[in-house]
Amino acid sequence: MQRHLLPFTLAIFFYLCAPGLAWNDATHMAVMKAAGLDNYAYLAVGADMAKEKSGGHEEGNHYCNNAKGAKVTVDMVLGQVRDYNSRDKDKGHLYGAIIAALAEYRERKSNHRYANYPLGFAGHYIGDLSMPLHNTEYNDFNKAHHRANDGVIEGSEDEATDVKVARIAAEIRKRMARLPAYQLPPAKGDFTKFNRELAKKIAEIANKSITLGYAMEDSRPQKTVMSADDAYRQLAESALLLKAAFAALQ
C-alpha cells in the first residue's frame, strides 16, 4: 500500500467498523478539519475504536453524567484530570480527559516523540464535549435517542466519507465565523495558566451542552433529536476550542 494512502484508508476502516458513539465518525473528523487540522482528521476516530480493546479504561473519557441543574466549574474540570483512563462506567470524566490528553501531546512533542495519537484522542474528546447527551444523565431519554443524535448531520450512508467530512466541516466553519475566536495562553514553561484557561472554556461549552440536552428532554412534546443547526452550533464550539488549544501548544 502506498504510504500517502494510509491515513485515508485507516479513516475508511474506522468509519465502517466503529459503532456510532458520541457523534459519528465523519462528524468527529469534520471537527478536526474545521479546526484546520486536516492532516490529523483521521486520528479523531481512534478513541471510539480504543474502547473496544481497553477493558473499560477508555469509556469514562468520553462523557460526564451531569444531573439536571448541575453547573460545571473550573475546579471540577481540573479535578477530573487524575481520573484519565480509569475504569468508570458511572459518572465519567470527559472534561479532565481533554486536559490530560493535551498534556500528553505536549509532553511527547517536547521530547521529540510521536505525538499525533494523543492529539487525536484530545480532538475526539473535544468533539464529545459539544454533544449534549454526553453531558447529561444516561437516563431512559438519553438511551432511547442517543444514536439518532450522534448521526443527526451525517446524512446518507451512500455519501462518500471524504465528501461527507468536507460538507460537515464547511457547515461547522460557517457557525465558527459567527462566534468570537477562542484564545488560550501559550503552553510554555508553567502550564498552570494554560490548563486553567482551558478548563474555563471546557466548563463553558459543557454547560451549554447540559442546557441543550435537558431542554430537549424537558420540552413538550419532547425534542428527541436536535436540529441540524443546533448540532452545527455545538460543533463550532468544539472546533474553536480545538483550534485554540492546538495553536497554544505549538
Notes on the protein architecture:
The protein has 250 residues and is mainly α. The chain has one domain: P1 Nuclease (Orthogonal Bundle). The protein is built from ten helices and no strands. The longest helix has 27 residues, at 192-218. The radius of gyration is 17 Å and the shape is globular. The model is unreliable at 1-20 (pLDDT under 50).
Offer a quick outline of the entry.
By secondary structure, the chain is mainly alpha-helical. The protein has 10 helices and no strands.
Task: For this entry, give a set of tags.
single chain; mainly alpha; globular; 10 helices; disordered N terminus; P1 Nuclease; 0% strand; 250 residues
User: What is the name of the CATH architecture?
Assistant: Orthogonal Bundle
Count all strands and give the number: 0
Instruction: Compute the CA-based radius of gyration.
Output: 17 Å
What is the level 1 CATH name?
Mainly Alpha
- Which bin fits the share of residues in helices? 55-70%
Please trace the helix and strand order, writing H or E for each element: HHHHHHHHHH
As residue ranges, the low-confidence spans are: 1-20
Helix and strand composition category: mainly alpha
The gross shape turns out to be globular
The N- and C-terminal alpha carbons lie at a distance of 32 Å
Main beta sheet strand tally, sense and closure: none
Q: What portion of the residues fall into strands of 2 or more residues?
A: under 5%
The CATH topology comes to P1 Nuclease
Mean pLDDT: 90
Number of domains: 1
